[in-house]
Amino acid sequence: MDERRLVKVSKYLSKHLRHQPERIGLTLDPAGWTEIDALIAAADAHGFRFTREELDEVVAGNDKRRFAIEGTRIRASQGHSVEVELGLPPATPPPYLYHGTVARSLEPIRAEGLRPMNRHDVHLSPDRETAARVGARRGRPVVLAVDAGAMHRDGHVFHVSANGVWLTKAVPVRYLRFPKGH
């Protein structure tokens, strides 16, 4: 499958497995899973056709491992705006995690910390490089360091998704380290 088609199918899956399953008549179970056959049929019924082979290629080839397949079911690994309980156990984070953003977002972050916005959790990266790639989706990236070790000691709960994204409900300002000049 060519790159454009791969991206198109991936974006379609993200939209319907993370944000708007009802748009195509899809039902997610409480943990976000749906039957693969039901997904393919619902997409087809709404004018977007893809094969099981294309689906498997998107899941296997996605560098961010956005989707997980378990038997005959599929779900998004994280990033939902619809109510799901991923069932991820609490995890001890490394001393520092990172968050990629852009300069125009720094003022509200300095005032309120990191909030989940329209998602269930704040997404944090295990390294600066990944955070920079995330931030670059919206412009020139600014990478914030998060004192995850101190947060954890202070009782904040962390989870890590199947694709290595660290999740927490919010990051108060006192745990953020802004780069020089920002």
UniProtKB/TrEMBL annotation:
GO molecular function: NAD+ poly-ADP-ribosyltransferase activity; tRNA 2'-phosphotransferase activity
Transmembrane segments: none
Xref: InterPro entries: Ptrans_KptA/Tpt1, RNA_2'-PTrans_C, RNA_2'-PTrans_KptA, RNA_2'-PTrans_N
SUPFAM superfamilies on file: ADP-ribosylation
Function: Removes the 2'-phosphate from RNA via an intermediate in which the phosphate is ADP-ribosylated by NAD followed by a presumed transesterification to release the RNA and generate ADP-ribose 1''-2''-cyclic phosphate (APPR>P). May function as an ADP-ribosylase.
The family this protein is said to belong to: Belongs to the KptA/TPT1 family.
This protein's name: Probable RNA 2'-phosphotransferase
Organism, scientific name: Streptomyces naganishii JCM 4654
Gene that specifies this protein: kptA
